[in-house]
Amino acid sequence: MRVAALFSGGKDSTYAAHVAVQRGWDLTQLVSVLPEDRDSMLFHVPNLHMTALLAEAMRYPLTTENAKAGEDGELDALRRVFRRLDVDGIVVGAIASDYQHERMNRIADELGMRVFAPLWRHDPRRLVRDYLASGFEIVFSSVSAEGLDASWLGRRWDEQAVLDLLRLEATRGVHPCGEGGEFETLVLDGPMFHQRVEILRAEREWTGASGVWRVLEARLVPRRGAINSGAHEVPSASR
User: Fold this and answer.
1) Are the C-beta atoms of 167 and 129 separated by less than 8 Å?
2) Is residue 99 classed exposed, middle or buried when 0-12, 13-18 and 19+ CB atoms within 10 A define those classes?
3) Model pLDDT for residues 104-144, shown as the tens digit of each residue
4) Whether the predicted pLDDT of 231 surpasses 50
5) What is the pLDDT of residues 178-188, one digit of tens each?
6) Out of 5-19, 41-55, 117-131, 133-147, which region has the weakest mean confidence (pLDDT)?
7) Angle, in degrees to the nearest 10, between helices 124-133 and 11-22
8) Contact predicate 1/19, CB 8 Å
9) Which residues contact 178 (CB under 8 A, 6 or more apart)?
10) What is the DSSP letter of 170?
11) Is the predicted pLDDT of residue 206 greater than 90, yes or no?
12) What is the SS3 assignment for 148?
């Protein structure tokens, strides 16, 4: 089974790609759609400019496509990028969003391509621990829900963060995996990585009720200590 993975650099798309590889599928490339709309309901937005460095860390080719604002523009971008792929199907990290799931499947079906969503309808309380147990190094890159303040920006995904998310689910209705748009994440290391990402400079932008942790400079370093590679100035992409 030859597949490509729709990839944002966040935990869900990265973990879905990992699951595909664990199933023995031939993952040929990563695919990133770059939306013009920073409030896109279909695509992850924060730190999408990091996908090239992350793909390099995992040693997979990356295919990108720009998407104009609005649902039609974003669906057209999906059509264009799917047409460029020579694969049997596309792997996506959707967990609970019917909006995303239906539209991904609609476009793929138009083009005779299958969509594989290995995390679909999985228990989010289990998934939040699976990410941790699988060795993923994750940071929170944006938050926009009651109970998530500026201290979460750049915070590491660890056991205490998992406990706090489960508490916020019980007290504030926050989806533990952020499927309601409550937060976004960035993966810095994991089992598919040949090098890990080290953040050298990042900035927090807080507006009073929501915020973004934006990476400005990063580099790839060996996973087990030795001499690191050179730093990469990361283009801000005005996001």
Assistant:
1) no
2) exposed
3) 899 999 999 999 999 999 999 999 999 999 999 999 999 99
4) no
5) 988 899 999 99
6) 41-55
7) 70
8) no
9) 184, 185
10) H
11) yes
12) coil
**Sheet with 114-116: strands ordered across:** 62-67, 26-35, 2-6, 89-91, 114-116
Judged by DSSP in three states, 27 sits in: strand
Q: Tell me the C-alpha distance between 118 and 93, whole Å.
A: 7
Structure tokens at 131: 């990410």
CA–CA dist 235, 215 (Å, integer): 9
* 220/189 Cα distance (integer angstroms): 10
Token pair, residue 237, equals 């992409």
The candidate with the shortest Cα–Cα distance to 94, out of 196, 193, 13, is: 13
> Residues 8, 199: contact at Cβ < 8 Å?
no
- Please state, in angstroms and rounded to a whole number, the distance separating the CA atoms of residues 192 and 22: 10
Encoded tokens for 236: 């801000």
Residue 70 corresponds to which tokens in the numbers above? 């609005």
